[in-house]
Amino acid sequence: MQRFIGRDLARPDGPAKVRGEAVYVADLRVADAWVGGTVRSDVARGVLRGFERDPGFDWTRVAFVTAADIPGENVQALIVDDQPVLASGAIEHWGEPLALIAAPDVATLERALAAVKPLIDPAVGNFDPELSTKVFKSIRIAKGDVDAVFRSLPAGAIVVEGTYRTDSQEQLYIEPQGCIAWPPDSDGTITVKGSLQCPHYVRKALVRCFGIAPEKARVVQMETGGGFGGKEEYPSVVACHAALLARAAKRPVKLYYDRHEDLAVTPKRHPGRVKLRAAFGADGTCLALDADVLFDGGAYTTLSPVVLSRGTLHASGPYRWPSARIVGRVVATNHVPYGAFRGFGAPQTCFAIERLFDRAARELEIHPFALRRKNALVAGDTTATGQLLEHSVGSVQVLEAIAQSSAFDRHAWCVPRAESGAKRRGLGMSFFFHGAGFTGSGEEMLKGRVRVDLLPDGRVEVLAGSTEIGQGTNTLFTAIAADALGVDVADLALATPDTARVPDSGPTVASRTCMVVGGVLAQACAELRARVGDGTGAWRERARRFLASGGDGSVTVTYASPAGVRWDDANYTGDAYPVFGWAADVALVEVDVDTCEVDVLRFWTAVDVGRALQPRLVIGQIEGGSLQAVGWAQREVITTRDGRFEQDRLATCIVPTTLDAPRFDVTLVEVPYPHGPYGAKGVGELPMDGGAPAVLSAIEDALRVHATRVPATPERILALLEDSSAIAARNT
Amino acid sequence: MKSIFDEGDPIELWVRVNGVARTISVPPLRRLLDVLRDDLGLCGSKEGCGEGECGACTVLVDGEAVLACLAPACQVDGTDVVTVEGAGFERVQAAFLDHGGAQCGICTPGMIVMTRAWIDACRRDGTEPTEDGARIALAGNLCRCTGYGAIVAAALAAAREDAR
Known about the structure:
heterodimer; A: alpha+beta; Aldehyde Oxidoreductase, domain 4; Aldehyde Oxidoreductase, domain 3; 4 domains; 7-stranded mixed beta sheet; 6-stranded mixed beta sheet; 28 strands; 24% strand; globular; B: alpha+beta; Ubiquitin-like (UB roll); DNA polymerase, domain 1; 2 domains; 5 helices
């Protein structure tokens, strides 16, 4: 019986949050803790020769740490060992950490930071990914013979081309990065508490940096004020730095970034350039796609290979291409390293293919809705990697739902109409999918685990490494566990993600917490329920009897991929993801033709999530993700100069406010996924993919200009209008 | 926190915080946010930017919404300060829980204080609480999780409840 699945539960973390009692890392009061700071490079490339320390400052009052003080390896452990914890020679980006200082108070720390000068031989940096000679990762996906299709196109076929650019984007979690570290205790264990998404990633980084056994590094997640990917890999940097300072200072050290430092040095979305060439039959049927994807990875590898992977795997969109070739590469520049951000490479490529579909619709004179509907992947089709879509393919359902809610299919898109005044309205759409869970064989390698333990009083403790970062993990796990066990919410306890207690469930990323970890949790609960038995009496009574009779009340389950899932990482063929989420967006914009300002008034979205286990949480994910996408589409500008982010204060780094946000109209479509818990699949990232192309499609409807770059700022729209009026003037 | 705010000879600051009269010795330019969090241990007000852009540190000073990261201690001498830990937020807090207005929670205290300031202003001015009114009132409080729909719905529900 499902008492909690599908019905909104009260958020377990809610009351403390609304009363201001939830404890974030900056709220921790730790006696004798010092404050830490980072000495950074003020050039984007160079060689560190050493430090000049002002002899007038009393250096015995502070702890000063350089690369030479690292007890283990000077490696920021992630995918490739190219990023140092502290630079020891080569400097590859502005703001690169060179040394660390801890002091008893802020005033002393500031004086110490001002009293040290890194000695750097500067070098010329490269900030243009097109000119980069260092490739972090390249990928090639091929289906059919694309060249042959372009060589011998059928009569009436058209070829559409475009180059689409997406600028970077800041996650802008409202709580900046921070952690507090304790020095090694009597048995050598290092403890770090912080604002983070992936405690086991941080542990892995500490283990390498300190050269210690995994059980000697303990990482505890504090209440976390937003992540969006921004607290996937970067907290490992902050944690290693704080722990090095704590070791040197022999006392706890707080390392909290203020907003300026956070904006200036933490990873953001990879800038992208996607070149597309596609052939369509005269009736609009997709014939072939040729795609070339380039991402700027910044100075170090970080997560770039996997971001590129997700980017290329989504580059063909949710469409049936008989032939497709997608080549992608992510390259090094001297930008601050780019990293994880909701969508993880897919928003860049989804934007490109959706814009190309609008261009094709205009050339073919087919309605953009009809063109998408005609070519939408359906169950039984194969993707560009040859993945046969079998389960939970809600493509047509979301298109029908968006037509129903927005009536976009009946809107005369880009058809000239009588208009006057300073404002033009437009409607536009996007259609997209997003793979849930890790790419390819990622989940097989992760082997995410969850444990449930019977407590002596008969309650069940859920132990998982998945973090609550606002998306609702605690609520979701409570609902799943309560229904799988057949117990009340009060019969459950949720363990804080603490690597000393909880198993590694894999990171809280990739739209996997509900579908993958939630599924493992449901299995573990079902096993425990079977052990205890459904006999007479209330759960706790039965559980206590079970324990008293010597029963084993601890169940650990490890994720196993559904049978038949196969992936060839060498050739990029097979099942790229266990399943996809599907969605369609429609945006209504109003453009001021004098200022070119764009106001997104309404936003319809229809999303196939498999099953909405907690509808309010799902809607929260969809609206929040959609607004991030809408913000990126028009106003979230991130630019660099000499490798430095120009928007390094909240006064210049703009995100949408209540007045910028459209009214949302969300339709949940449920096409259950048989291998997800209660039919659920992932939703976290999906809403980030479609907002930008839908908004630019609506701008095209309003102004008849085909914007190819995100964000479509007033300046960029004005340039397009000037180009198009120049063309019109020339043609008359 | 920047040490520049802690320069100068301390003043005797008299302030009523959440109904309790306090006299504390603080540097005159110390930010109200630091006085609340560090001197008084009231950590409900959050620092999201330290430059008055995000609204997470919003508190009431003599009934008006004030950004505690921009207000120096000397400016609140003799005032009545109410933070999210104070009384009178229960209805707004319940509405935020009911509507899913709190996700990661870091903007939530500021949102809740600002919502109450708006409801109080509506009552004082005799204006009807509307969705547009809520959006204007909350425009200085950033949230990156919700897309604002749930927050605006919560604010409106609390205002209508209040008006009843």
